[in-house]
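#help-structures
NK: newbie question, is this the right format to request a structure? protein is T9SS C-terminal target domain-containing protein
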Amino acid sequence: MKKITQLILGFLLASGCCFAQQEKGIVGDTNWLNNWTEFKPNEIDYGEPTQILTGNISEDTTLKKGEVYLLLGSVFVTNDATLTIEPGTVILGDYNSKGSLTISRGAKIMAQGYQTDPIIFSSNKSVKRAGDWGGLVILGDAPINRFGSGSVASYYPNLNPADYTYTNYGGENTSGFSGVLQYVRIEYAGKRISQDTYFNSLFLACVGESTKIDHVMISHSGEDGFEVWGGNISLNNLVSYRSRGTDYKFNYGSTSQIFNSLALRSPYASNGSGVRCLEVRSYNKKEESDFSKNKTLIEASNLTFLTDSDDLKSAIEMNLVHEAIYVGENTELNMLKSVVSGFNPAVILDQQIQVNQKSLENIAFTEMYFNNCNGNIFVENNSNNEDLENWYGNRAFFNVYSKSNNTETFISANNYKRPDFRLRINKIIASNIDSDLIED
């Protein structure tokens, strides 16, 4: 009995170590990317449009599976209407008219796909490129800390003056409900509007906590993938793939959570410096922020940020790879159990952030796995990071540092049909347990 008990204890100890490794980065008993994601959408022909969506949708409307819808110009859901999209429905954004879909304040979108039958937003071009069409915009009535009109009217070329009211966002309703996005793919969005203005693939302004967003994949975005202004929303099981802009951006007093999500970057599909996997700010300029209101506070856990490159060293030397995470001043970020693999460096803090206990207690990196990065955590424009290394390298944070390639680090990073970006779990080797504990 004693020998059997020792064997069980040894097995549990080894299993516990494996489970601790699996806890970092995206998690799941099974690979939740299966069936609904697509890492080569350019190879899919969604067919020709059979229905056109244009102007305003001012009453409850359902988009049916089997039809292919074309977003022609700026389409607004207005008048507190609900747009319901059946699983498997395809919606194409028009290239020439910069097609986009906006859920106005008070309106709702109910886009509930299935794992085996996701809802698809994509480009209407035969040869698709990042930034072919506008994107999906959801405007709510939750708080924001930004001064100004609370309008995104500049996003819409040739907007009818009567429609300006549909571009407003903001309020005091933290529990606001703007609908559901579940098992949805958004491909090739993020079109350029003017010299300095772009759509984002999914833009959430002042969206409240009752809104449900999970299992959403954005691929080949021409600008930022997921951008959140204000509001207080939980985001789960998201994927951002080969975005030219930032993958996940939070700003203007957003108090939100992001969990179990993936960003996969390519050195050759990026707008250059200033784009990251995660960016957390309270404002772009101090004068546009109301300091009597909340600063941005983000809870981030079980994220995986990965650079996909066959020659990471050369890509870094050519300045094609940048930091994974950027933290602005007067923000709070609590990030834990996440994987940052293959960046230059892992984290940059805004140059206005003072390296002292008071500041760093608001920027937590705990139980992290930093792998194959050219440096870990730095203040912007300062190559001396000794104080930061001492702080975050303290054993109390349980951070891990490693140098290994993607094949060694992830279960199946190179399989584009069924990729699996969960951390690889070490096998339990029998030789780790004394042979004399095993009875015949």
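mod (FA): yep, format's fine, and the tokens are attached above. Residues 1-21, 427-440 have pLDDT under 50 and may be disordered.
NK: thank you!
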